[in-house]
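Form 7-S
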Amino acid sequence: MQSIDSDVFQHLRDWLDEGIRPWLCTIVRTVGSSPRPAGSILAIAGDGRQIGSVSGGCVEEDLLERLRTGVYAGQSPELIEYGVSAEENERLGLPCGGRLTLLLERLDDNARPWVDAVLQALRERRVLERHLDLTTGISRLVPAAHFSSLAIDSKQLVQCFGPRMRMLLVGAGQLAHSLAELGLAMDYEIVVTDPREQILREWEGPQVQLLQGMPDDIIREHANDHHSLVITLTHDPRIDDMALMEALVSEAWYVGALGSQRTTEKRLKRLRELDITEEQLARLHAPVGLEIGSKTPLEIAVAIMAELIQLRRGLPAS
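Output:
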């Protein structure tokens, strides 16, 4: 499954190969409610083909019409505002008070090296920062350890391209449904795995990638880098322990396991008997989530997401 950014950059590369000078449109600022967050991108070819999104569709249609009529010359990066009035919000279907600032660029063969480099980084799940000079339109790329939010001032745009954090949920039960919903809302890529075919067939959660297979194999193939999280949810030691044995020796950034304190103590004992070292066990977040008295699946999911926010912000454990 490719990310939206990968799809956009693949189309940009294909269009450049066809001799087309495509447009790249990026949301650089939002005020109030916005259909898409800052950093969202849209690619447009001169014949009207487009990939990506900056709104629910109306902004894209208006922008395409302006491009067709030659409103934008495309000589240098150009900032465009949408939602400057209540009338425009209503016409474009933007939420009340919402405002978008878009950066519009016309790409040519000079863009090919950085487009290729970003596309390759996305395929390899590496992070690159693009530094765009807003006066000259010249881009340079800088390797980055972690994904960071878009930043723009009067002189330059700094935008990260790289893999979204991938959350691999082991077990396709009700808690996985709730976690998947919250994870998608917070821009995680969600993958759900379960060796039990019937459980996967009964999935009623959001549309995410569902993988049947043994959890250790799935983790090795899909969650073995610093941009991945593994959370076990099945309550079945035969499944969860197999997943944890692989996840704790992998490169995954976060490994968590559902269960009570008593269940966790039994799990740790089993994992020690399976030759998992104390250093590796120290990586395990169990019981998973912040201690906020959660009982229902949605409450537990909130506690888990809250812990992830705390860790990603570098805040001390409470």
